[in-house]
Amino acid sequence: MSANNMSGPQRVNKIIRYKPPSTEANPTLEDPTPDYMNLLGMIFSMCGLMLKLKWCAWIAVYCSFISFANSRSSEDTKQMMSSFMLSISAVVMSYLQNPQPMSPPW
Amino acid sequence: MRSVYLLLPALLLLLALPVSRGRYNDDFDDGEDLADFADDNDFAEFEDVSEDTAAEPETAPPPRVAPPAQPAEDDEDEATVELEEDGQEDGFEDSDTQDQDMYSKYDPDEFDGMEKPSQSLKDPLIIHTVPAHLQNSWESYYMEILMVTGLLAYIMNYIIGKNKNSRLATAWFNSHRELLESNFALVGDDGTSKDAVSTGKLNQENEHIYNLWCSGRVCCEGMLIQLKFVKRQDLLNVLARMMRPVCDQVQIKVTLNDEDMDTFVFAVGTKKAMARMQKEMQDLSEFCSDKPKSGAKYGLPELLAILTEMGEVTDGVMDSKMVHYITNHADKIESIHFSDQFSGAKVVQEDGQPLKLPETKKTLLFTFNVPGMGNTSPKDMDTLLPLMNMVIYSIDKVKKLRLNREGKQKADKNRARVEENFLKQTHNQRQEAAQTRREEKKRAEKERIMSEEDPERQRRLEEAAQRRDQKKIEKKQMKMKQIKVKAM
């Protein structure tokens, strides 16, 4: 669909630079999954550590993985790594304190 | 890089398990010595009847105890056999023959008043099962193995999904690159580089969202294309999609300069999308208050509906070429929205906040569904090329479309009406806000006067405040008089 004239419809003088959409509108439009999962992961890992529940710690690991998979590229990797490490430390600590295998709930 | 971040924790996890188990294995090296605890045994007196294993109750041969080894905590009170698995066979062979000997040597009188030994055997034998973590088998850890397998499956799915999305995006860009480059001077910009040079590639916002900004064309300011794929990298999402299939979407937003578009609001799309947008979008809810009309009236397929400010707009937009485009690709069109009053979705305002009229921008919005309902292959991206042609055609068309005099008048009236309504709604709120501000000021003033220690200064400040109030009242009275005179 280019125009007939030689330069086509492009106009170099009309170039406008890309402005990422303002962050004001973003929080409502953006997917809240990674933030929720991050928070859940932290809560579960704290539960797992304090109450010595193995299944809490495992769910925390899963939550931090899910949060990582859904995260935006603009997000801090430090935050991701810290939630990973917290959940893995929760798992390791629960096993060190009580090496019995996890019993299924049924 | 991100895969490394994932693998690191998984590796750590796998290493942690054996470490935690290994600690307790040492205890069993002492197991062999358990057999020699003759010193602690109640029956130590009878040890001279040479048994090479730990003693057992005198009467019947002890039942063969199942657990292969027991921790030292098991106490001697119970009539259990403190034997190791390998020691057990030897013990039993000898004990059978020795039993008779032992028995014959005992003096029945010794046990007067005591319970018969055989009765002690009737006390239930409490056989402890060895705690699972002390058994030398991995099978007891099946839940953990399941968990780790699940994690590995998640990681595999992440890598596969990420790659698939990336391939789809590249395929889309490759098929559309030529068309875009022939229409726009700047194709691909992330906004960070100093010069306005085409990056020539997509901007990856996420593992499932890719952006492309094109600019430098007659009739428009710029075009933002968002490839919104489904979250193939998230296993939970993949499972959810098995229940409820979702499409990949391509969203195109063309922003126009003020002179590029006349004043009208128009939308066409699937019935569901139109119903939703009429509720959600600020401009559609204000300007297109009628229910969505069926597209059949204009030669469109039944499944499409139209929202418009006035009939003339529809006639103007739906020329034969547009109808042709839309009819041929109706399955891929989710919504098309042209508006000069576009301000996004309705913003939910908290109570008591003074509203400002939202900023509007002349915009054309297109949302297309990628065929395949989630199971897309890179080849399907080529089928979207005609739709991009339609977008370019629309940009040129909207520039040329001008309402006639009546239409323009109607449109202007509509906009004035909307603005008035808005001001009315906010009038009360603005008044309240002004009132509260005035009260706040007065209160602050009073507090200042009260907090003044010096009574002299206090009196002076009070007088000053009184004078100010008096002046204000006089001013108001003057105003009222003026209004009355004018009214007359």
TrEMBL record, chain A:
The record's keywords, sorted A to Z, are: Membrane, Transmembrane, Transmembrane helix
| One GO MF term attached to the UniProt entry | protein folding chaperone
Transmembrane keyword on record: yes
Q: Does the keyword field hold Phosphoprotein? A: no
The transmembrane residues are 39-68
Name the Gene Ontology biological process terms: protein insertion into ER membrane
> In this entry, which stretches build a coiled coil?
none
Query: Where's it mainly located?
Result: membrane
The GO cellular component terms are:
endoplasmic reticulum membrane
Cellular compartments annotated: Membrane
InterPro entries, per database record = ASTER
- Family under the similarity heading: Belongs to the Asterix family.
Protein name from the UniProt record: PAT complex subunit Asterix
List the source organism: Hucho hucho
Automatic annotation (TrEMBL), chain B:
| GO molecular function list | calcium ion binding
Composition skew (Basic and acidic residues), residue ranges: 406-422, 435-477
Determine if Membrane is one of this entry's keywords: yes
Which residues fall in a compositionally biased region of kind Acidic residues? 72-99
Q: Where in the cell is it found?
A: Rough endoplasmic reticulum membrane
Q: How does it sit in the membrane?
A: Single-pass type I membrane protein
Top-rank taxon, per record: Eukaryota
Q: Where is there biased composition of kind Pro residues?
A: 59-70
The segment annotated Disordered runs over: 49-118, 406-488
Presence of keyword Metal-binding? no
Name the principal localization, coarsely classed. endoplasmic reticulum
Q: Name one Pfam family in it.
A: CCDC47
A single Gene Ontology CC annotation of this entry is: rough endoplasmic reticulum membrane
- Write out the entry's keywords from A to Z: Membrane, Signal, Transmembrane, Transmembrane helix
GO biological process annotations for this chain's record?
A: endoplasmic reticulum calcium ion homeostasis
The record's family statement is: Belongs to the CCDC47 family.
Q: What is this protein called?
A: PAT complex subunit CCDC47
- The source organism is Hucho hucho (huchen)
